[in-house]
Specification:
Elements lengths: L1 E3 L5 E2 L2 E4 L9 E4 L3 E4 L3 E5 L1 E4 L3 E13 L6 E3 L6 E3 L1 H4 L2 E9 L7 E4 L3 E3 L4 E6 L1 E4 L3 E3 L4 E6 L6 E4 L4 E2 L2 E4 L1
Parallel strand pairs: 1-4, 2-5, 3-6, 4-7, 5-8, 6-8, 8-11, 9-10, 9-12, 11-14, 12-15, 13-16, 14-17, 15-18, 16-19, 17-20
Length: about 170
């Protein structure tokens, strides 16, 4: 487990990589607040434990990425290697929060419990396969993006769900 403490008020892009060699070990634990001013923030590891507020003020993006390009993700609960809980998403604020990797070679992002975005961040899922098994509620006029691989190999699959957002884009 790799933890970072006391990283505040930084200008520019920040990348915190707990598994920089992508060998499948390295949980990223955030226990102190992180704020960037307009820069992007990348949080990457085999798993993520977020116990403090993370903000990319201005036009920045927060990227939540598994270190391996074929990893499975769960959002809202569940048992995939890279799990993101509702409470963790509530600790984040940025123009855009992006979960997954645009360069994914496998794996699935599964939304398996009702996801309620209370902050004003847009939310994007980028991955090989995306499975929506629960409701998604964007509470403050945010946009939702579901992007599977563009080469026709990936897929977006829906089970029982309800999406409440000002704008939804599915590719």
């Amino acid at each position: 487990t790799n933890g970072f403490a006391l990283l505040r008020a930084v200008a520019g892009d920040i990348s915190l990589l707990a598994d920089f060699d992508a060998n499948g070990t390295g949980t990223l634990t955030i226990s102190e607040a992180i704020t960037t001013f307009g820069g992007d923030l990348t949080l990457q590891g085999t798993d993520l434990f977020l116990g403090a507020f993370v903000q990319s003020a201005g036009a920045g993006t927060i990227f939540l990425q598994a270190s391996e390009t074929d990893a499975d993700y769960t959002v809202g609960g569940g048992a995939a290697a890279f799990g993101i809980e509702n409470a963790e998403l509530d600790e984040m604020f940025a123009a855009l929060i992006e979960i997954g990797r645009g360069d994914a070679t496998g794996g699935t992002i599964t939304i398996d419990a009702t996801l309620t975005m209370m902050n004003a961040s847009d939310l994007s899922f980028e991955g090989f396969n995306i499975v929506v098994n629960a409701d998604i509620q964007m509470q403050n006029g945010q946009s939702l993006f579901l992007h599977a691989l563009e080469d026709g190999i990936g897929s977006v699959t829906f089970a029982a769900f309800n999406i409440d957002s000002d704008s939804t884009e599915i590719e």
